[in-house]
Amino acid sequence: MKGTRIEYFEDELAWIEANRHLPRRELHRMFCARFERQDVNQSNLTALCKRNGWLTGRTGHFEKGQPPANKGKRMPFHPNSARTRFKKGQRPANKHDVGYESIDREGYVKICVAEPNPWTGAPTHMAFKHRWLWEKANGPLPDGHVLKCIDGDKTNTDPSNWDLIPQALLPRLNGRFGRDYDAAPAEVKPTIMAIAKLEHRAREARKDAEDRP
User: Which of 65, 79, 117, 129 qualifies as a cystine partner to 157, CB 3.0-4.6 A?
Assistant: First the structure.
């Protein structure tokens, strides 16, 4: 009955402790057969072992040097599995040739370049084309800086169309209190950029003055 305390005899407890390393299902089956205890279910026995610290010693992890159970065995044939396996010489769907281009959800052009992938070590990877071309012409992007599209057309990846600006300047251009630079008319963009840069320099100058003793 649920909630009723189960009593165990001393010989039963001694037997359970001596066989605590057995899997709980097997321990329960052998216990019931040996002591004819039909009032004890597997959960009761598991709880008893936990209360007394009678653990199996198994962690569920592969130990160092332990061979996998399926080592040296062939995978059984299954038609559903066979249909989705890679065939010898098959080209992965997401593999792109050097020079392949695509446009991401933000409208930036990405290009497959013949440079090692810094995360996977693969011989190629997809890079933002505007940044890749800009760094080819000007060197690595300095820390704390980003490239801002000058004419608002992100597909125009020519380095001359991208301005190197401090990352902290972005909110003054397009942030919550920015001037909507990207949507502004072409003839107004230079003025917005100049004002934003002037404000940013003024703010940095005030911070430097406040930090000086």
Answer: 129
